[in-house]
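All the exercises in this workshop are built on plain-text protein records. A record pairs a protein's sequence with a compact description of its fold. Read left to right, the backbone structure tokens trace the chain's path through space. Once this layout is familiar, the rest of the handout is easier to follow. Here is such a record, shown just as it appears in the course material:
>
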Amino acid sequence: MTDRIKAGLERLFIDHRIVFWYDAARDMRAEYDAVDLPDVEKVEIANNEFGLKYRMLRQEPKQKFLVFHDGPAPEMADNWLLDLYFACGVFKADQAAIWLAELGLPLQFEGVVRDHMEFYRAKGRVEALKQMITPSDTKTDVLRRMLAVCAGAEGALDTVIEELLAELADERDDAMRLMERSGLTEFFWKQVENAYGYVSDAPDFEDFAITLFQSCYARALGEDGKLNGEALLVFRRWKNNRLGAKAFETLSGKYQEILRIPEDVQERDIKALRAIDHFEEIDRQIIRSLVREMASQTVSSAEVLKTVRERRQSHWYPTFEDIYQAIGYATEFQQALAEANLTMTSPAEGVKRYVSHWYKIDQLYRKFIYHMQKSGQASLLSALFESVENRYTTNFLSAVNDAWQDQISGLSDWKISGFARQTDFYMDQAAEFRRRDQKVVVILSDALRYEVAEEALREIRKLNRFDADLKPMISALPSYTQLGMAALLPNKDLELSEDGNVSSFGLPTQGTANREKVLGMGRAGDRVKAMKADDFMRLKADDGKEVFRDHDILYLYHNRIDIVGDKLATEERVAEAAEVAVEDLTKLVRKLTTANFSNILVTADHGFIYQHRALDETDFSVAAPAGAEILVKNRRFIIGRDLDATSGMKKFSSSNLGLSGNLDVLFPNSINRMRVKGAGSRFVHGGATLQEVIVPVLRVGKRREADVEKVEVQIIVTGKSLISSGQTAVTLYQTQPVSEKQQQRDVLAGIYAADGTLISDEHLLTFDYISQNARERELPIKFLLSRDADRFNNQDVFLKLRERIGKTSHFEDYTSHRFQLRRGISTDFDF
């Protein structure tokens, strides 16, 4: 403080030889004693007025004097130095004057300080206020900035409200108590009344907060609210601000009970609630309604998908994302099943139809199960699960495989014309690269069903400069790991042994080491390597390149689905395992290309059938197997000698299956299972259903040029580009569906003045619509204008879609649309 006093005195001595300092409050003695001014004589008034006057005017007429009095200035009639007082400088050194000087404010702002002395007693608050003040500020502006400092806000009233809401959520009232101590409470409530229309005989901030939630909810429903549109804008901005999310959720959860929202939403049509997200209970009600209507088939797929699409803008969407995803997949599942024609006239037609259309039903069912489980809200989705499960099992899985059974029942040999056989894979597909003297890597993913591989195809194609295609292949029978893995190697005289293992070239094929030996039988001179995919993923980059350099053909064994599904304790997690498998394969492909592999094949030993609900007795094969000798009994096949054919099972001999030896194999019809003690029954394979025997061959290649870009988004405005009220509506249109190479675009949308001032609420939007229907890629949005918009009336303003720069907090313009702002009445919120 001494430095500030010294600086103030030095300014006065520039214009005056004599400066008076009256310490009216008698609290500045220490500061007077401490101050030291070169060439200035310090003197005190102590019943020595005539002597001082004679000295200053006669004896030392050129000397500078600082005249101090310990107390207030005397009345003019009693002041013997009055003529000098008026002729010379006067230093006001009380606290208010010092703070005023420190802030650089003129004397007419003195009341802003004197009436709120408590505010200025903290140096940090004075410094913060000093940083905010601008030369054009009025007294009201300064008081508003004081409110901001009390709340730790950025400056504007809406930011003060946001900080106070955050304190309320934390059950604190530090800022409100500081305002009260600083004498700012009355001013604060007057500002709130003028800005938001909140009027109360006994204003209270929690009462204001409850009224804010109540009014904004009512206004969103098209009803009257106690607060005005500006309050709705503040509410939206706060709710959508990532920094305010926790406070919003806390207060929303508390007030939805006070405002009886759970009871209220039950009386509402969900169409009226679709665009509202003030309370978590709204999402719960929408989900309950959708589940109920979907289970009873009283709502169209288009309506469900529209609702799910709109709820993506909800604040609570991350909380319920997996439920909405489950609902979306269930809807698509129902739609795909309704459109499916599950008939075929030949085995080849059955395969063709499966790989072109029917696989999608399996995929949508699996995705539904995955998101239902991940949501942790199985009870909320129970009615929908029952509906989906019943339709999947009865109307699809059983129906399509009953029709398929009719086709394969007539086969004498296991061969389907027009489709590649698993036993020919090495010779026809892997060795094709070696014949061109190119290196190749084969990923063998255990139980990678065709529909899971199709999802992996799309994920791999999303990678920049990657391309891939997918074709079906017919697995060997029985469709189990030992035979499928052996069939994918170079093979000769494939033979089932009595314990279910398989030999080729007379060599065992179980285990990585044995498979590497058999792989070496394929082409003379080839340097071969077989290893687990997990081991390859753990290699350092240089070690991966070394594997490429030193080998011509690499087989990588990947196991995510089968290792989970084949265990009774974990089989219910097979949908999750499939998700992980897709993620694994995408990462594995990237690492392989980094290690210089450019020819990549992904395939499987077999597929699987899976039903999430525990099976009924009717799902097991009725006829017990019989014959001379039963060697291996599996849920989906029996290996033995001289087995008896039955009406409930299809019999093939080893030679019928293209295998060496003299064994027989029985397969339960359609999706029936055999009873096997201790084995899981929901996830099974080994049989001859479409899902078990159609395996994928995924070919992955690398392109030289970048080929991934984001979808385009356009701003659609109907009528004139004119904003004449407090809100405006536009439609944002995603011009093409999201695909592997046309990826989603995330934008931040808001209306801005020409100088960059944001004059509306903002919306963070994701455009990732996959629909081919253009109308389903439209997103209607309403923008609320703020008070700042009044400053730009009769000017051009701009709706901007902005994109984040990388992972930073900065944004750049993507596209914009010019509007003229022409509002009839400008609002003055000052007083």
